[in-house]
Amino acid sequence: MKIYFYFAALFAFFPFHAAHAEENFSMIANRPINTFSIVAFDAASGEMGVAVQSHWFSVGSIVTWAEAGAGVVATQSFADPAYGPRGLALMKSGIKAEAALKALLSADKGEAVRQVAFIDAEGTIAAHTGAKCIESAGHHAGEHYSVQANMMENDKVVPAMWKAFEAAKGDLAERMMLALEAAQEAGGDVRGRQSAAILIVKIKGTGRPWADRVLELRVEDHEYPLKELRRLLTINRGYEQMNLGDAALEKQDMATALKHYSAAAAFVPGNIEILYWQAVTLATNDHLDKALPIFREVFSKDKRWMELTKRLHKPEIIPDTEAGRALVERILKEGK
Predict the structure, then answer these.
(1) Phi-psi region of 294 (alpha: psi -120 to 50; beta: other; left: phi over 0)
(2) Count of domains in the chain?
(3) Are residues 153 and 42 in the same domain?
(4) In terms of domains, do 166 and 298 share one?
């Protein structure tokens, strides 16, 4: 009885009654967000996430949901986005993934065309493929992950996804990307492809959502969305390495800083933004000799970065002092 009243109280706060479900279903009945996705939990890294590709514009804004301390949701097929925030709210309140998903499905008259997967903050999986989802449709729940797909070219997509994920090496983002790429290679969506997204958060929340969100990348519309998502992920890795280099330099660990800067350049060779701020960080930490060759490379490609250098005094990136002004003058003079 306690469980019943607990759910009743939750639904009073997060209304998901039959009338709403029927109305919502009628609104989206002709808009199938048919797709393939993966939700996954990695205790070793303290991360959990969701990744997706579909022949639908901006699929990430509909399918992918995640919150540190709560869980992860993928809601697709004739998608009801309400499963995202409501599912997260239920799991955040302490309800396990299976019970949370069951509660929402039981109040949804459109459950037969829904495809949904939940992971809670303990790594528990729950997944549902409605009996009326467009073929080929199905899901596979493994240890701390679930893959799901509908309206696929063939029935090989789901097996290709889970096998690729289980065999994959690397961080969570890499393994989820490999699962998506395997799905596309196996046939993918019968209609083709249009958009893709990946969202990763920390398992444990800190109360600072901006810090708990590890990665969020979206490809809203592209001929080859997974290739574009892979490109964006690579760029993101470059910026991550640059930030690690800056952090190491602040600790006066030059060897580690240069290692990270080199890795950043390898991920995104020729990226002026990364090169420029690397040079600024080196110059403002008494390593002008190492910064000047980088400034020369940047300025030779685009003179506008010289103008930006003159503007670094106001935010005190380079202090507006005699020494700071002399540093800027030398950078502009010797960096030409």
Answers:
(1) alpha
(2) 2
(3) yes
(4) no
Q: Do 170 and 56 share a structural domain?
A: yes
CA distance 277 to 82: 41
The reply to whether 229 falls in a domain is: no
Tens place of pLDDT for every residue, the chain, 336 residues? Answer: 334 334 433 443 344 443 344 444 444 445 666 689 999 999 999 999 999 999 999 999 999 999 999 999 999 999 999 999 999 999 999 999 999 999 999 999 999 999 999 999 999 999 999 999 999 999 999 999 999 999 999 999 999 999 999 999 999 999 999 999 999 999 989 999 999 999 999 999 999 999 999 999 999 999 999 999 999 999 999 999 999 999 998 899 999 999 999 999 999 998 999 999 999 999 999 999 999 999 999 999 999 999 999 999 999 999 999 999 999 999 999 988
How many residues are there in the chain? 336
In degrees and rounded to multiples of 5, residue 201 shows phi and psi of: -130, 165
Which range of residues forms the domain containing residue 302? Answer: 237-334
Residue written as token pair 């469980």: 3
Whether 231 maps to a domain, the answer reads no
